Amino acid sequence: MGAHLVVRAVAELFVIDFSDPATYRSDWGGPSLIGVLAARMLPGLLASTLMVRALGSRQATRSDRTTEVTPPR
Question: pTM to 2 decimals?
């Protein structure tokens, strides 16, 4: 689902015609361009941020496991 939102956010930049309001007037967030971009791109930005944070925490957890030092007996 997150990947879909990210791809849709990127594709939105190429799908709408910024100079022709008729192409985005009836879209979610319309009739203004900023509303349409917010409605279409903010979920993708949020999803990408959450995915990057999840991967980062997974990397940190993995590196914590490999750097554990066992005390000598």
Answer: 0.66
The predicted-structure confidence for 20-50, as pLDDT tens digits, reads as follows 888 888 888 888 899 989 998 999 999 999 9
Q: Taking the CA of residue 24 as centre, how many other CA atoms within 13 Å lie in the half-sphere pointing to its CB? A: 23
Q: Could you give the CA distance from residue 24 to residue 13 in angstroms, rounded to a whole number?
A: 12
Rounded-to-integer distance, Cα 29 and Cα 37, Å: 8
| Under 8 Å between Cβ of 45 and 9 | yes
Domain positions in the chain are 2-60
For the record, the structure tokens of 42 come out as: 């903010």
Give 12: exposed, middle or buried? Use CB within 10 Å, 0-12, 13-18, 19+. Answer: middle
Which pairs from 21-25 meet CB under 8 Å and 24+ separation? Answer: none
